Amino acid sequence: MSTRRNRHPRRVAALAAALVTASLALTACGGSGSGSGKASGPLKVWVRGAGDSQKAYQMVFDGYTKKTGVKVELFMTNTDFETKLNAAAAAHKLPDVVIDDGSQLGTFKKQGIITEVDKAKITGAAQVSDTAWKSVGDDKGATYGVPFSAQASVLLIRTDWLKKVGMQPPTTWDQMEAVAKAFTTRDPDGNGKNDTYGLDVPGSTQRGYLSWYWSNFLYEAGGNFLTPTGSGGFTSTIGSSAAVTAADYLKKLYCTDKVVQPGALNNVTTDTNKAFQTGVAGMYLTGPYAYATTDATAVKGKYTAVAPPAGPGGVNALAEGTTVYAMAGSKRSADFDTLASYMVSPAAQTLGMTGVPTATIVRLPINTAVDTAKVHGGDPRWQLAQDIYQKSSTYEPVSAPDWQTYRNDASETLNKLLSGCGDSKQALTGLNSQYESLLKK
To answer: Parallel, antiparallel, or unpaired: how do β-strands 43-48 and 72-77 relate?
Structure first.
């Protein structure tokens, strides 16, 4: 989750969703997902991203064009991407393909702007990991999208600071707290000033940042946000004792130990990246996409990546990814199939990992034939991330209708809890009621 859009008021979001749904009743009538649709001209592909990512995606699309002869018309933005997408739907001008966060699946599905995908028509589908395929499936077993990239949280930690305070990388929550205290109180950078902190936290409510970050602790405590019922629905588990334990842990770090960087509750990942890269904080739970940008700063060679410390439920990091969505109303479903087939191929996966070093649009390959560490020159940090993803990670319940709303609500609850250093159980009991109300809609 390298960048996240601002959250709009729920009333505006609901109106936008209603407009989209009504619009698509006209524009997508009869749409049936990937299959026989054919048309001429460039394939219109919208991608949520910015900066060097555009160069990286263009390289992938150029490879696709060379292979198939089909040209791609690329539109890319990071600013209010989904808002622009809603506007395009309301204007009956959806693109053919959208590449966006996997966490948008439930929202897109509820809005009716994506169509079901037939895995049998995706060449190379058998090479895509089962874990990745599950991330694009709903609770009834239908597939809505094709995975392109995956990632799992790792803990970046300053090795020079560890050496200064005489400690090892933490493997448990208690050890993480101890290291965070040492980084905050024992002048690990040696400048004689009280200006360092143990933990780097993106605590803003924008786009659900704080919930996204805290989910690592939730899974390590053995909890979850929602649990599938097995009959097409979900139940809320956000008020569980495991969730309270996870909230209490983060609250202690923030409110009691005071080991979190200043301004955390207003920080998005751009801010937290800077805090780690400029020596404000010494530990940062984030995705492996941070390797490239962090290696381009003064802390290169002064940090390493380790597995997230185990909580009461063990090591269980947040998994997430990027999905290729087939858009409703498109007459290019056959081209969607060939594009998605190319994007999951070893050639495209490798290109996405290495084509533009500053923009690893494939963070971890979803194709099991691709060796992550080998592609990255034997860098053990990438093998670590791959191992965590495969063995010790959990996706958010992204197929839940309007999942982003649940994430935003959790973020607001946690932000309020930390800002007031309140009661975790009471806060999550209230959030559980919100979730139960959403599930009834």
So the answer is: parallel
Q: Model confidence over 410-429: pLDDT tens digits?
A: 999 999 999 999 999 999 99
pLDDT digits (tens, 9 = 90+) for 329-376: 999 999 999 999 999 999 999 999 999 988 889 999 999 999 999 999
Residue 82 — very low, low, confident or very high, per pLDDT cuts 50/70/90? confident
pLDDT tens-place string over residues 270-325: 999 999 999 999 999 999 989 988 999 999 999 999 999 999 999 999 999 999 99
Pair 272, 405 in one domain: yes
Residue bearing tokens 């990438």: 382
Structure token pair of residue 186: 């024992």
> What pLDDT sits at residue 247?
98
Please state whether beta strands 393-395 and 317-326 pair in parallel, antiparallel, or not at all (unpaired): parallel
Angle at 437 between CA 432 and CA 441, to 5 degrees: 145
Nearby residues of 146 by Cβ (< 8 Å), 6 or more positions away:
117, 122, 128, 136, 323, 324, 340, 343, 344
Task: Determine the straight-line distance between the first and last CA of the chain, rounded to whole angstroms.
Answer: 28
Nearest residue to 165 (alpha-carbon basis) of 82, 282, 31: 282
Q: What is the pTM of this model?
A: 0.86
The verdict on 353 and 285 lying in the same domain is no
What are the backbone angles phi and psi of residue 196, rounded to the nearest 5°?
Answer: -120, 155
| Contacts of residue 18, Cβ cutoff 8 Å, sequence gap at least 6 | none
Q: How far apart, in whole angstroms, are the C-alpha atoms of residue 244 and residue 123?
A: 44
Quote the CA–CA distance of 146 and 148 in Å, as a whole number. Answer: 6
Compute the distance between CA of residue 149 and CA of residue 128 in angstroms, rounded to an integer. Answer: 10
Q: Are residues 200 and 238 in the same domain?
A: yes
7 vs 272 pLDDT, higher one: 272
Residues 408 and 271 in one domain: yes
Q: Output the DSSP codes for 28-76.
A: STT--SSSS----S-EEEEEE--TTHHHHHHHHHHHHHHHH---EEEEE
- The answer to the question of residue 61 being in a domain is yes
Query: For residue 14, what are the contacts with CB-CB under 8 A and spacing of at least 6?
Result: none
Report which of 131, 167, 170, 138 is spatially closest to residue 154, judged by C-alpha positions.
170
